[in-house]
Design brief:
Layout lengths: L1 H12 L2 H4 L12 H34 L15 H29 L7 E8 L2 E6 L4 E5 L5 H4 L17 E4 L4 E7 L4 E5 L4 E5 L5 E5 L5 E7 L11 E7 L1 H25 L6 H15 L1 H4 L17 H4 L2 H10 L15 H13 L11 H15 L23 H16 L5 H15 L1 H4 L17 H4 L2 H10 L15 H13 L11 H8 L1
Parallel strand pairs: 1-5, 4-10
Antiparallel strand pairs: 1-2, 2-3, 5-8, 6-7, 6-9, 9-10
Length: 524
């Protein structure tokens, strides 16, 4: 008993190494910042303990030595200047002593400059989307805990509700900058071992950073009440050595190439109803059951039922379209980047035949691909050009057009359409749509940006400077910043339109009009 009593002051005033062994204490983490946060926590704890000991010590001493039974007589004084000064100055000094290390730590936590790697983190109900800048790599990370464990029919695993199908992979000893936003509601990306906890707000970008000291697996979860499956949105980070991280990047690119080849091969495959239903059920339970429920009944007033619904009973093309492109203004996400054509075909088939729907429809990958092509063609009808190449011509028939000549003709036709000059009104209309799709998350709808993170476009040097400089930063991006290259994301017409829009919106009123030919000429 005496050992325990003697041990209490030792724990309170021991070095951080001993305090770190206390099971209920804050963990030190695996980054410099998490270590500084831990040390700050211990400093504040020690100050609070010291204040508590002094205050309660004086109280206990006063109750024992100045009680009435010992004949103590209360002093009679009023408005003591010395006491007033003492209880004002002493707390002020204590607060200053606490504020100095706290301010230093907070400044360090909010300094994402000079990052070696930038990753955009997008939260959505209920998954995380990771995009690696400069590496052309992105993927979704979903909870992988088996539903049998969630429903209690199987024993819970070691990492129950803290396991995902694809972890975020980061290199150690590198400064990693996080840009966080959301597709729908407010989420919060929290990994205690990194001392990183930052809200992901729709329409805004928040910044954080980390530098991991040692390899390993680190887990966290969404720390915001983001909806019914808030507790099913884990975060898993795998930290690798720099060499292993480079190998992982190469492997991911190879996997992407293999997946693309498999997707193309799948277009010529025909799966049976049983195969489609089996695969579709797995995908549905992993991707769709959170909203529409495992039994397809949905949540009345929130998520629609799929049992006998107009979508599952209507045309197959409409069903495919809503899965591929989502539905604006609702929680229905677009799965075009989340699932391949075979997976979309399987889940659509499953939804149209499960829970008593029994439509008998089977959807193949080719159906999804053709539906997607039709959708893309209708969306880009102003630039789509039908091309017919000669196929299987008899040997004795004179081929008037070689393949090379045909390609040249197609290129000339495309350039003729794409490079047509537009009026200021047409450019502004197209530019606004492009801006609201690709630029608004960083630079905001009013062009004001986010001070300290993303520059304002209102009267900025880029906007008021030469058009060639503006074209260069949009087409090629800006190394060392979050400004990515849009040369492969936008057509010349779209590039020209968004630059015209930025140079004339929000009171900039430069009067400049940029045409597609300017963008093509600059790219060359």
């Amino acid at each position: 008993m005496k050992q325990k009593l003697y041990g209490l002051p030792a724990l309170l005033f021991s070095p951080s190494i001993l305090a770190a062994d206390m099971p209920l204490n804050m963990t030190q983490g695996v980054t410099e910042i998490s270590g500084r946060v831990y040390n700050l926590h211990m400093i504040i704890l020690y100050i609070c303990c010291a204040i508590g000991l002094v205050v309660f010590g004086v109280m206990i001493y006063s109750m024992i030595n100045h009680r009435k039974s010992r004949g103590a007589v209360a002093a009679n004084f009023h408005e003591s200047t010395k006491v007033e000064i003492a209880w004002t100055v002493v707390p002020f000094i204590i607060l200053i002593l606490m504020a100095i290390p706290a301010t230093k730590t907070l400044i360090a936590m909010e300094d994402p400059s000079d990052a070696d790697l930038t990753i955009k983190i997008t939260g959505s109900q209920w998954k995380w989307h990771y995009s690696y800048f400069d590496h052309d790599l992105e993927f979704y990370s979903l909870l992988s805990t088996p539903r049998e464990q969630i429903e209690g029919t199987e024993e819970k695993g070691e990492n129950y509700l803290l396991e995902v199908d694809k972890p975020l992979v980061l290199p150690i000893n590198k400064k990693v900058r996080f840009l966080m936003t959301s597709d729908d509601v407010i989420h919060s990306w929290w990994v205690p071992a990194f001392a990183v906890k930052k809200d992901a707000n729709p329409g805004f970008i928040n910044e954080a950073w980390t530098r991991i000291d040692k390899p390993g697996w680190y887990r966290g979860q969404c720390a915001e009440l983001c909806g019914k499956d808030h507790g099913f949105m884990p975060i898993v980070v795998e930290a690798l050595s720099e060499v292993d991280f480079d190998k992982w990047l190469i492997a991911q690119k190879q996997q992407a190439n293999n997946a693309e080849a498999e997707a193309k091969a799948a277009l010529s495959q025909t799966l049976s109803m049983e195969e489609l239903m089996a695969q579709g059920e797995q995908i549905y339970l992993a991707r769709c059951a959170a909203c529409h429920q495992p039994n397809g009944a949905g949540l009345p007033g929130v998520f629609p039922s799929l049992i006998g619904s107009p979508i599952t009973k209507g045309p197959v093309a409409d069903h495919i379209d809503i899965v591929v492109n989502g539905k604006s203004g609702t929680a229905m996400q677009a799965f075009a980047k989340q699932l391949n054509a075979t997976e979309i075909a399987a889940v659509v088939t499953f939804e149209r035949n499960a829970w008593g729907n029994d439509s008998g429809d089977t959807v193949q990958a080719a159906d999804v691909s053709s539906a997607g092509s039709s959708s893309a063609a209708s969306n880009d009808s102003d630039t789509a050009i039908p091309v017919t190449l000669p196929v299987n011509q008899p040997e004795n028939e004179q081929v008037k057009t070689t393949v090379a000549e045909t390609v040249n003709e197609v290129v000339e036709e495309v350039e003729a359409v794409v490079l047509d000059d537009l009026t200021m009104d047409e450019l502004m209309a197209v530019g606004e749509k492009v801006y609201m799709t690709h630029c608004v998350a960083c630079h905001q709808a009013a062009g004001t940006g986010l001070p300290g993170a993303f520059p304002s476009l209102v009267g900025s040097p880029v906007i008021t400077g030469p058009i060639s400089g503006h074209l260069d930063v949009v087409i090629n991006g800006k190394p060392g910043t979050a400004m990515q290259s849009f040369s492969s994301l936008l057509t010349p017409q779209q590039l020209a339109a968004v630059i015209t829009y930025e140079r004339n919106a929000w009171g900039n009123n430069s009067g400049d009009t940029v045409q597609a030919s300017d963008a093509v000429g600059h790219g060359k």
